[in-house]
Amino acid sequence: MPINFFKHLADQNSAHILRIIPPEHLKEVVEGFYVFKAGNPAERELFFNDGYPVIALMQNENVSVSIDGHTKCVGNTWVCGGVLRNIYCESELHFEDCLVIRFHAVTFFKLFGINEDCFQKEQVFDFSEIAGYGFETFKETYYHCSSLEERMKVVVNFLSEKMSNYSYPRVLIDIQNHINRQGNLTVRDLLDSYKKVRLNYKWLERNFKKHLGISPQSYLLIRRFLNAYIDLDALTSKDLLQIAIDNGYYDDNHFIKDFRRFSGVPPKTYFNRTIKALKTVKDDCSL
Length: 287
Description:
alpha+beta, 13 helices, globular, 47% helix, 10 strands, disordered C terminus, 2 domains, Arc Repressor Mutant, subunit A, six-stranded antiparallel beta sheet
């Protein structure tokens, strides 16, 4: 998703995102349905994922992404997950009314019958690659709907038909929620927090990779970076060093290295580019 989606997601009072609670029988699979009401004014928007795989249903706009300089079209229904590095939306798009389905990773892979390492090979791809039986009918019906209520019924029915019985360690969802609430954590912190259930490193490593598709270290890394990015984007009085330390980095150089890893450029270059793009859009609107 565009990284600003998560900025609005973190703001519970944001007018840019409408959250729709999934029906009871889908809560084990779907964390939430979101209607993304914020536009995408930048020519190139950094893509990111916070550890929850998503399926995005655009309003008939095909999305092209740049992955390490190579352009790829992922259509108007696409999947995003895993650890995204230096991936950008290639052209200016409007994300208004884009429906985002945010999944629990521990059940996402089972729901679509795919391997847990699929996001190690591709982080953004066309939904048709994993949707399975009934996708063409689902897509045609979805895009013929004239209201959000109708589209939601189509999505819920499609996901409900894919529900099946499978098992997974329920504590994994609790661990994910604990990480999201606490923010700055290490693997050692997790092990200490779950002493009562005798959580050990080998179990954590094995089950994160098996059910979430990434290691616990990678999950903590993307959460830490996202929190620091949102803090930096908020334009507070904090300097870069303070933001880095507040979000679990040793120093600002450590944060800058991570920023380069995820965006391809240092923070100053990234935000200068973003400010310039926003100014261009405002100037165009005033003409």
